[in-house]
Amino acid sequence: MSTLLEMSGVSVSFDGFKAINNLSFQIGEPELRAIIGPNGAGKTTFMDIITGKTKPDEGRITWGEKNISLLGKSESQIAREGIGRKFQKPTVFEAQTVRENLAMALRNPRGPFDVLFYKKTQEGADRIEAIAEQIGLSDALPRLAGELSHGQKQWLEIGMLLAQEPRLLLVDEPAAGMTPAEREKTTEMLVNAAKTRAVVVVEHDMEFIRRLGCRVTVLCEGAVLAEGSIDHVTSDPQVIDVYLGR
Ligand SMILES: Nc1ncnc2c1ncn2[C@@H]1O[C@H](COP(=O)(O)OP(=O)(O)OP(=O)(O)O)[C@@H](O)[C@H]1O
């Protein structure tokens, strides 16, 4: 596993308040990583920094085998580098079918106007089938996305992100609002997605985190408080104090 993204000494202040405080973080490729921490710990700001939405005041962020700097790149340039982000609320095209949603999301080397053409090619159709299977929506391909359950919409959006073949996928609270069965399927999906890429999951649900079976980073006051296996971090007295023991 080689390092894909490395942050070092990153700080961001909002009106004098240090939301991220000298934060260092590394993720490999492939790797699955969970991020936990109390409200206001800086989890969202951390993802905003990686995607270029928030510019750090200090620090370095390097990416890929050439260690290029992500600082100074725009949000769309960072997305093109292969960093995808799934927000908490699903944003799928409700009036389109599952198949059309996936077709739109497929990376298309011929430019945006050939999406319909691409959809009709065998390669495009095969890719759509493969992604639908990965996200458990093979039978739902002809259905309108607006008719899907909340959990299925989340999976469709994960599928749309996977269609773009990100090297790093950031996922914000995927388990929120899901049934226990949906949570279990989501765990499986993320574990599988992380076999070939880096996946960072921010989540409050500790059972969900435990099932991911991955390294956990605990953020607190904008810095890493603890890092390691779920058993390691959940037995750390400081983590119990600021997060688990609430
Ligand atoms: N644009 C902003 N302007 C001012 N303060 C901000 C801004 N964005 C975040 N903050 C502050 O920075 C701190 C970290 O916020 P952030 O949303 O990153 O935390 P979080 O760990 O994602 O919290 P939660 O679990 O509640 O989503 C908070 O105190 C928040 O109020």
From TrEMBL:
> Highest taxon of the source?
Bacteria
Task: Please state every residue range assigned to the domain named ABC transporter.
Answer: 5-246
Keywords per UniProt? ATP-binding, Nucleotide-binding, Transport
Identify the GO cellular component terms for this protein.
plasma membrane
Q: PROSITE patterns attached here?
A: ABC_TRANSPORTER_2
CDD domains reported in the protein's UniProt record: ABC_Mj1267_LivG_branched
User: Per its record, what are the GO molecular function terms?
Assistant: ATP binding; ATP hydrolysis activity
The cross-references to PANTHER family, in alphabetical order and at most eight, read: CONSERVED COMPONENT OF ABC TRANSPORTER FOR NATURAL AMINO ACIDS-RELATED (PTHR45772), HIGH-AFFINITY BRANCHED-CHAIN AMINO ACID TRANSPORT ATP-BINDING PROTEIN (PTHR45772:SF8)
Q: What is this protein called?
A: Urea ABC transporter ATP-binding protein UrtD
The organism named in the record is Sagittula salina
Quote the gene name from the UniProt entry: urtD
